[in-house]
Every structure is written in C-alpha cells, then in structure tokens.
Amino acid sequence: MKTETSKPMKVEDLRIDQINSVTGLVNQWSKSGGFMGYYLSKGVVILKEMIKENKCVKWLSFPAAIISTGIRGIVKDALKRRYFDYVVTTCGTLDHDIARSVKEYYCGEFYVDDSKLWEQDVHRLGSVFIPSTNYGEIIEKFMQHFLEDIYSQGYRELGSYELCNLLGEYIDSGESLLKIAYKNNILIFIPGIIDGAVGTQLWLFHQRHRDFKLNLFRDLDKLAEITFKTRRSGALILGGGISKHFLLWWSQFSGGLDFAVQITTAQEYDGSLSGSRLSEAITWGMLKETAKHVTIYADVTLVLPVLLAAIEK
C-alpha cells in the first residue's frame, strides 16, 4: 500500500489513558509510525473498505492450525457476519472442527516433555493439547457414518467444496465452523483435501466403495465460474502455504485482487510463498497495481481478534 503523502504525518506517542477500546488503540496506532501496530491500523482501513463494497467478492484463506485454538470462534463470527463469500483452507480445518464439535481440546505449553505426552496419549499442536481419544477415533467414527449416509443418498463423486457443504449440513453442532458456513452459503475449498485425518477417512471409505471418488476438477470448475465473472475482489490471507497460493493463483483469472491484507510470521529472504510480501503478487498478475494492500508480520492469534473487532466500529 502506498505510504507517500503530500505532507508527512508526524509520529505521535501512544497514551495509556486513551486506550479505552480496541478502536481507540487502533486509532492511536495509525499515528504511531511503528511498527506492526501502524500496519495493523492500515489493515483495518483496507478491510473496512473491502467489506463495505457490495460488488467486491471477498475471500478468506488460512491454514488449519488456528482452528485448534480459540481463534476458531473469531473465524466463525466473521462467517456469521458474512464478511467473506468464500474460504480456502487445509484438511486439518475439517479435522479440528469435527473433533472439537464432539470433544474438547486443552490449553497446554510449547515447552514440555513430548515423550511424556506420548506416553499419556496426548497430541501436542503447539501449545494446544489434544487427547488422542478426542481426535482420531472421533473423526473416524464421524466420517464413516457421514460417508455411509451420503453414499446411501447416491453421492459418488465430490469436489472439496461439495464435501464441505455436505459436512456442514450433516454436523449437529451449532458451534461448528462447517455448520456456520453451510447456513450462510459460504463455500469452503480445500485443495489439499487428502492431507489430514479426514482425507485418510475418505481413502479408507474408498477401499470399501471403489465407485466413491473425489474429483477436484469440480472445484476448478466452480472456481472458474466464480473468478471469470468477478470484476472486483479482495482477500484476508492468514498465514501461507497452499491456502494462500491457491487463493492468489485463482485471483489472477479475475484480473488480480483489489484489496488484500496478509498476516504472517514467515519471512521472504528464503523465497517462501508464506513469507512473500503481497507486492510480489503484482508481478504475477494476482494483485492489481492499484490494489490497496498491506502485509502485517505478526501472530494471527494476537492480531486477528483486534483486526476484526476494530472493523466493527
């Protein structure tokens, strides 16, 4: 995002007694000059404009790890408010959403004896502890019942977005991200659908029902239908990996994004897509030269609640 102005803005000190709300803090950051707080305030402005523009198609991308945390609730609230029309994520989002809709995950620590956790049948995902009985067994039971149900209805071939839609319809929990997306007609695309517990269950079901198949060309057909007629689009990109790339790749077919906010902890010096600045996407036609965009280097679990709370005001 361009920062040149005809008259430079002076740096102003933040004041504790003026931080009485999220919006108040963000407003102060917009005049602080440094460092990521300043860029977060720019992100709020861009997202506000993007969400308010009715003709703009809005995308959200994120990797699955955050769905194991309380940030799942922030993502669900954003979908309830229809901030986004489409989601791109990874298979683990299905894993964690299904498992947490049935059983509990627990707050843990990064710095523990992982061998002892293994002996206790506890998986560690960063600082989240997941009893093994609350994960694999839950997902297997849920998915096999679900797949038998849709198979009996005649489903034989599905794209990832169709699978997610059926899962959202099937799952009972009102706390499920999948259920909320289904109720709000938000399509979820998972280009790496077989890379996770749900993907393994799909493969196992296929061993018994060889005529049941995933067809990711159906995803591409739907994406072509969306992007080839899109004139203006925007995205909130959390983290990187396949979710970020898939979203950006398909954005080029609509002429590039008009709005983009990226939150990442990765750096670009190693050439990684996860760490690449959004401006790099201009060279690929994935982001318009005129686009309003900003990259915020920060932990999503810290920044996303502030970012989305601030655009409410």
Order of helices and strands: HHEHEHEHEEHEHHEHEHEHEEH
Give the rounded overall mean pLDDT. 94
How many beta strands in the DSSP annotation? 11
Percent helix, as a range, is 40-55%
Distance between the termini: 22 Å
| Percent in strands | 15-25%
CATH superfamily of the largest domain: Deoxyhypusine synthase
Detailed description of the structure:
With 313 residues, the chain is of the alpha/beta class. It folds into two domains: 1-55 and 231-313, Deoxyhypusine synthase (Deoxyhypusine Synthase, 3-Layer(aba) Sandwich), CATH 3.40.910.10; 64-230, Deoxyhypusine synthase (Deoxyhypusine Synthase, 3-Layer(aba) Sandwich), CATH 3.40.910.10. Helices cover 43% and strands 17% of the residues. The chain has twelve helices and eleven strands. Helix 7 crosses helix 8 (177-183). The longest helix has 17 residues, at 36-52. The radius of gyration is 21 Å and the shape is globular.
Task: Explain briefly what this protein structure is.
The chain has 313 residues and is an alpha/beta fold. Helices cover 43% and strands 17% of the residues. The relative contact order is 0.16.
Helix and strand arrangement:
Blueprint: H1 22-29, H2 36-52, E1 56-61, H3 71-80, E2 86-88, H4 91-102, E3 106-107, H5 114-119, E4 122-125, E5 128-131, H6 136-152, E6 157-158, H7 160-170, H8 177-183, E7 187-189, H9 197-208, E8 213-214, H10 217-227, E9 232-238, H11 241-251, E10 257-264, E11 287-297, H12 300-311
Helix pairs in contact: 2-12, 4-6, 6-9, 7-8
